[in-house]
Structure formats: C-alpha cells, structure tokens
Amino acid sequence: MNKNNKQDLFQVFASSNIYEANLVKTLLEGSEIKCIMLDENTIRMNPLYSEALGGIKIMVSREDIERAKEVILNYIGHL
Question: What percentage of the chain's residues is helix, strand, coil (to nearest 5)?
Fold first, then answer.
C-alpha cells in the first residue's frame, strides 16, 4: 500500500471515537490487512472537528476491501 497516493485507498470505516478507530485498525492489522487512519491527529487535537471531518477514517487498498469489511462486520456483530 502506498501511503502517499490516497487515490489508491478506500474508506472502510469511520468513527468519531479515537479508541474505537484504533481498535478497528488493530483488528485489521491483526488480520494482516494494511491500513491507515486519516484525520486522527486533527481530531485528537480538537475533538469538536470530528463531525465536520466525518470522523477518523480507516483506509485500505482496493484488494483488501472485502476482507476488511468482513473483519469490521465481525467486530460490529460482537458489540
């Protein structure tokens, strides 16, 4: 995954909760899915920006979208 080319990345999850976003990122990485978080630092510095920015976004490459959705749906199903 090329972190410098955001056009190759696709959003699979968003949360206004920093802890939940980090949990999902950890679950994806534990499933050997490379991902990055966007807007994490901005929202960490000023949580009031979360709604305006659409939360912290988890991004994966095209080839990992389906596997990432499976991991996330499994997580959501256990809430």
Answer: 55, 20, 20
